[in-house]
Amino acid sequence: xxxxxxxxxxxxxxxxxxxxxxxxxxxxxxxxxxxxxxxxxxxxxxxxxxxxxxxxxxxxxxxxxxxxxxxxxxxxxxxxxxxxxxxxxxxxxxxxxxxxxxxxxxxxxxxxxxxxxxxxxxxxxxxxxxxxxxxxxxxxxxxxxxxxxxxxxxxxxxxxxxxxxxxxxxxxxxxxxxxxxxxxxxxxxxxxxxxxxxxxxxxxxxxxxxxxxxxxxxxxxxxxxxxxxxxxxxx
Length: 235
Fold this sequence. Notes:
Number of domains: 1
CATH topology: Carbamate kinase
Structural class: alpha/beta
Strand content: 15-25%
Number of helices: 8
CATH superfamily: Acetylglutamate kinase-like
Helix content: 25-40%
Distance between the termini: 22 Å
Strand order of the largest sheet: 4-3-5-2-1-6-10-11-9
Oligomer: single chain
Radius of gyration: 17 Å
Shape: globular
Largest sheet: 9 strands, mixed
């Protein structure tokens, strides 16, 4: 395997499958199967998942809700998704722990860096819920922060497109895909990979990001086997 320890970032919307909102158990089972393929090969996997399938703080704020309250609701949505993914992983035979940035001791462990790293070393998947625990920060920022803290080798951002393009491939059929691109080029071209706070944090800590299609079966395993899948953002 090309990497020993990875941070997998998944969007909450990805869990909807073909639904309009909520969680699709079939999609959860598919993701768990993909994760099991790489944990069986000894890769240590940590996961950060969004909450957009349930609630977005920004959307709530635009509708007149207090932004801080809305972001706290969004954090709780990521915990709900984390519990669902934990259940799916355990059904697939993967020992899994959910750690949260906000304390909900009855359902998850609090985030403790040393404990998270110990879980990973023992072959357990660790899901980080609750974002960073602070309003005004996205789950992209949480993913980069946790990846740095646990000393991950790479951030893998699983999306529904197979990499970074010159334009939105769903809207522009002439858009071309990058196999590799620098952090500086992403910024200068105005390409949307992560929010600026998360992206800059990754750049400053020299942590590469790979954007790939998580919904194609086998992609995660092939990527970790060294195949040229998705787009790699590097210095």
